[in-house]
Amino acid sequence: MGTLVTLDLPVDSPVADLPWVITIGSLGDEEDWEPVVCGPYERAHALALAQAVVADEDLMAVVEPLLPRADAEAIRDEVELARAAAEDQVEDPDGDDDYETRRVRPGRAPTEAEVRAGWARIAARLVAEPA
User: Fold this and answer.
1) Do the Cβ atoms of 118 and 41 come closer than 8 Å?
2) 109: left (phi over 0), alpha (psi -120 to 50) or beta
3) Would you give the distance in Å from CA 96 to the centre of its chain?
4) Least confident interval from 18-22, 25-29, 65-69, 114-118
5) 58-117: per-residue pLDDT in tens?
6) Strands (E), the chain
7) Burial, 102: exposed, middle or buried (Cβ in 10 Å; 0-12, 13-18, 19+)?
């Protein structure tokens, strides 16, 4: 059985509406190959597809949001936010990371038509005028 890693978001998080990508890689050190990055997907589709892929294999899937930014300055702003957040984090004195692990039963993966419809919704959001 594989592993799925993702953000645990509050129900009303605006991050859930961003496009998401799946990175699939080896779960252990025995295999040496470059991870595969797929997407963009809507979050629910990304989670379901990742679960379907890793359910019966020793693979790790990381499902994370994309941050579409329209220019270099906006990207620099995100880099600065990430740096500031890293500086604010306190180092764990025990060296243990506080991760929550949940077992989930894989649901039905979306069909190709559902994924394509999701791509259309993502594209519409990306080209829409900012609010």
Assistant:
1) yes
2) beta
3) 23
4) 25-29
5) 899 999 999 888 889 999 999 999 899 888 876 555 555 555 666 666 678 999 999 999
6) 3-6, 20-26, 36-41, 59-65
7) exposed
